[in-house]
């Protein structure tokens, strides 16, 4: 049963990454009426992927484990998993900006990455709550 849980959590990590990428593209299209080129998409996938899998996935798991160990109420856990994961969205953005030698954290590009990592945190947190519900019969 643990293998199924770990497989589900791995798929949840990938799903939340692609949910963030989708949100990035949708906001780019809805707000600025632009599409992303293949080259830019690869760059976003590369840099966001590095930041996501090195920084966010371990941080997400730490947050979720902490919430699971300290909070007993199922409804409160359901809320705290995605909220906790959303609140760390700035760490990968700082990583990306440092990798490029700085930049404006209030720029349009930064806003797109904020959307990316915030939506990723919501999806990861809700997916983690679902995995706890399925494996334990409760949140």
Features of this protein?
elongated, 83% helix, single chain, 139 residues, mainly alpha
Sheet-strand content, in percent, reads under 5%
Structural class, from secondary structure content? Answer: mainly alpha
Helix content: over 70%
Number of helices: 5
- N- to C-terminal separation? 17 Å
Q: What's the order of the H and E elements?
A: HHHHH
Q: Which of globular, elongated, flat, extended, rod-shaped describes the shape?
A: elongated
Please state the CA-atom Rg, rounded to the nearest Å.
Answer: 16 Å
Poorly predicted runs of 5 or more residues: none
Mean pLDDT: 91
Number of strands: 0
Q: Work out the oligomeric state of the chains in this entry.
A: single chain
Task: Give the biggest beta sheet.
Answer: none
How are the SSEs ordered, and which strands pair?
Elements: H1 2-32, H2 38-70, H3 74-86, H4 90-99, H5 108-136
Helix pairs in contact: 1-5, 2-3, 2-4, 2-5, 3-5
Report on this model:
The protein has 139 residues and is mostly helical. The protein is 83% helix and 0% strand. The protein has five helices and no strands. α2 crosses α5. It is elongated, with a radius of gyration of 16 Å.
Nutshell version of this structure?
This protein has 139 residues and is mainly alpha-helical. It contains 5 helices and no strands.
């Amino acid at each position: 049963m643990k293998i199924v849980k770990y497989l589900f959590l791995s798929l949840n990590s990938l799903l939340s990454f692609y949910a963030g990428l989708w949100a990035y593209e949708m906001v780019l299209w809805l707000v600025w009426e632009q599409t992303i080129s293949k080259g830019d998409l690869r760059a976003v996938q590369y840099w966001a992927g590095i930041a996501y899998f090195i920084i966010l996935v371990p941080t997400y798991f730490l947050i979720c484990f902490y919430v699971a160990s300290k909070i007993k109420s199922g409804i409160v856990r359901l809320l705290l998993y995605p909220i906790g994961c959303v609140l760390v969205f700035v760490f990968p953005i700082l990583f990306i900006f440092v990798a490029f030698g700085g930049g404006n954290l209030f720029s349009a590009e930064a806003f797109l990455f904020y959307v990316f990592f915030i939506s990723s945190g919501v999806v990861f947190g809700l997916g983690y709550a679902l995995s706890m519900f399925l494996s334990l019969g409760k949140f």
